[in-house]
Amino acid sequence: MKKYNNNDFSIKDIDKEVTLYGWASKKRNLGGIIFIDLRDRSGIIQLVINPDNPNYDLALQIKNEYVLEITGVIKKREHSNPNLKTGEVEVLVSSLTILNKSEELPFEISDDITALEDTRLKYRYLDLRRNQLKNNLIMRHKIVTEIRNYLNNLDFLEIETPILCKSTPEGARDYLVPSRINKGSFYALPQSPQLFKQLLMVSGMEKYYQIARCFRDEDLRADRQPEFTQIDIEMSFVTEEDIFKLVEGMFKQLFKNIKNIDLPNVFPRIKYVDAINMYGSDKPDTRFEMLINDLTSIFKNTNFTPFQKEEVNCIVVKNKADFYSRKKIDELLEFIKIYDADNLFWLKYSDQISSSFYKNLSVEEQNSLIKNLSLEENDLVLIVSGKRKIVKTALGALRLKIAKEIDIIDKDKYNFLWVTDFPMFEYSEKENRYIACHHPFTMPNDVNMLDDKENCYARAYDIVLNGYELASGSIRIHDPKIQQIVFEKLGISKEEQEAKFGFLLEAFKYGVPPHAGIAPGLERLTMLMCNTDNIRDVVAFPKTASAYDLLTKAPSTVSENQLKDLGIEVIK
Predict the structure, then answer these.
(1) What does 203-272 look like in DSSP terms, one character per residue?
(2) CATH 1.10.10.60 for domain 6-100
(3) What class, spelled out in words, does domain 133-269+416-538 have in CATH?
(4) Cβ atoms 238, 515 nearer than 8 A
(5) Quick one: pLDDT at residue 86?
(6) Of the four listed, 63, 179, 240, 297, which is most buried by Cβ atoms within 10 Å?
(7) Pairwise CA distance, residues 321 & 376, whole Å
(8) pLDDT score recorded for residue 170
(9) pLDDT class of 518 with cuts at 50, 70, 90
């Protein structure tokens, strides 16, 4: 085993003999003297091989990424390098062994990499030698270690739950695993350990956590992978306040110990309804203002047709009217069409108002608009009208896009936010029925409101960080009678209940404690703490956006014999 790491050494180690191992990151031949940057996981130290060194001819053969073993003496560098932790010292080599050679690289291993991401994913083991990705994985390790320490100190038990489970699809599609022994039957990979962690509460474990692997067969994006890890937490005999206090303490310790950032003792809270009204999103980025304004009441009697019998909302972009040309505003219209909005009305406020709609308003409406929005010189007003959900979603997305364009987001800020009181139900156009907004085991705020699905809210909560949903959780239903009512309101028949959740419902007959939980996503947390916006940057071996592994070429076909063993025939 290695005794030393490259970054262990400084001026205090002058004249110390060391044996080091690593990769040749760079070789330079200056006036006959060979300098090699030796890289290991800890960092880089410079090696020096003089022309009279018996290892000189061997050193001439070294190319980038050769694996080396060297012995030498630590010496003071004539010219220090402030960019290296070991920049004041170097190693005068006395013994050199090439442990392995490297072929010509498909791309240069450099922090300023220009290679395409697909190429880097294909050769991921090389990409991981770069400082950025290496440091991201180290950050991930530190996060997991801190979380384990925090929860262990609070008497939580780390318990593993099965990976091969029963298929109980709720939301995303399951990944299915065929059974060889029971042909025609399938396991499912867990979308989360939801049912098992509730069973652990029935079992009397009281405080459980798991660094849990989860799998969802869904469309991917920059902050999503088909397999991911969540910090799964469940507790008995608790309320929302206990969950909030636990999680706030965990993140406070995490950010202090890893990034030396002091978070507030208590995180702000906002109800789901208010988040949608103000930010157009249930995961609002609160690092900047630019809130959504509801103008509907101003235009309740308007003669301007696009504002009649519609929700009319806007955002005000302060002092940026001159930044947005007609062409740029047309681009914003094309952008919000992604969210099914079909109009974008604008107004540039100054002594001479320029607008796409202002002249069509009554004088009273014009004055009310300016007064209501407290408009100032060079303000830009952007208005969307239509159905409420479309208006809020489009303006929420537009708010984020503009904030990035005009660079008003403080990237050094970490704004945590609790979003509470989520809807109990949401209407699925695809299924033409109401489904559970969170999952069917979430406790309603008021059981008597279950018949009013539009206005029934749940004891569900999310924690949001800088516009990303970091975790979802809820108070669980522990009363079998309430659980039965919720199933009925969701239209889940007794047969379907038994087929999907029979083992849980059976357990609920034997004394269930009040319990609740939450599950922060490890990758999203690491991504934000590493200041990247691509989740693949914090996963050792990620998949592409099409869920394909360029390194191992998975998924792939299998042999006919394997399919025969499983009783499966592939339809081509």
Answers:
(1) TT--EEEEEEEEE-BS--BTTB-SEEEEEEEEEES--HHHHHHHHHHHHHHHHHHHH-----SS--EEEH
(2) no
(3) alpha beta
(4) yes
(5) 95
(6) 240
(7) 11
(8) 60
(9) very high
